[in-house]
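Title: Prediction job returns without error message
Component: structure pipeline
Severity: low
Priority: P3
Assignee: unassigned

Description:
Job completed but the reporter wants confirmation the result is attached to the right record. Sequence as submitted:
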Amino acid sequence: MSSIDILTKTGSRSALSAELDRALRSVRSEAPGFALVLVDVTNFKRFNTHNPAALGDIVLIRLAECLKAVVGNRGPIYRVGGDVFAVILRDAGEAEAVAICTEILRATHNRITPPQAVHCGHHLCSGPVTVGVACGFALASPEQNAETLMRVADMNLYEAKTAATGRTAMPQTSRRTE
């Protein structure tokens, strides 16, 4: 299984799984904590319905480039699948995770929709079908496993997506382990 996502040149889902396990073992040995940040393209299904597949690929590539620019050397970036990306934000607590999410939202605002995006063709649409991003995160703790950490981050991402009604948003605080 490849450790690199060929389209976005980010880590793959299998690479994320291996790194999460390693990072959680590190947290259990008193190393600094980390945050798992999930980033999702909002309105992506609708965008792909009304645009050629190549434009959807451009959205994903542009998002990956924005993530690389924002995150830099603070942690690795992975494409989890479809239009979802993950960042393992090293040595990070809640304040750092919120700051990174805010930076991601700013960096991607009006920058990931290709200019060639077409109108949806419905009389209720007033312009091209555009996309945004939503962020959710979870803070690692020694008692968690990778599955629990992913589930909490995913719940926060879902909360951000539903609160945003297709726009860019993020939850204000992270959920703790359940």
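Comment from assignee: result matches the submitted record. The first helix runs from residue 13 to 28.
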